[in-house]
Amino acid sequence: MRIDRLDHLVLTVADIDATVRFYTEVLGMELVRFGAGRLALRFGDSKINLHEAGREVEPHALRPTPGSADLCLVLAGEPSEALAGARARLAEHRVAIELGPVERTGARGGIESLYVRDPDANLIELSVYPAAAPGAGAGMQPGANAGTDSGADAAGIP
């Protein structure tokens, strides 16, 4: 078996309306309605399905808990413009940047990231991959040590 990509994930939230506002108005995702009153947030080729705490759809995580997620979202566009645009959008909506910009390691190599919190205090990492450079993009190799993020341990953020 070989996994190709992540299609969707489920985020358990305390207040669906507040979550929808944050992810659509601040992060620019698209609200999608499906099934019997279900909601999702679409971006790129992926989506986040929303479950309200205490009203989860079966089957669900063993311990569905608001505020327990740590997500890295890659911004579209030219890296420096995308990061500057994200900072401006966050400021416009009075969303505090918890950390960043900082260098981290994504699935395809080095990234530059900003960290914020959503309404449930989930950690949201907004990232860009640098413009292509000679030798760049090696990414994570199977079995490679993933603990090379600069400052990650000291800051207490992955």
UniProtKB/TrEMBL annotation:
Residues 5-129 form the VOC domain. It holds the Pfam family Glyoxalase. InterPro entries: Glyas_Bleomycin-R_OHBP_Dase, Glyas_Fos-R_dOase_dom, GlyoxalaseI/FosfomycinResist, VOC_core. It comes from the Bacteria. Gene3D superfamilies: 2,3-Dihydroxybiphenyl 1,2-Dioxygenase, domain 1. This is VOC family protein. It comes from Brevibacterium rongguiense.
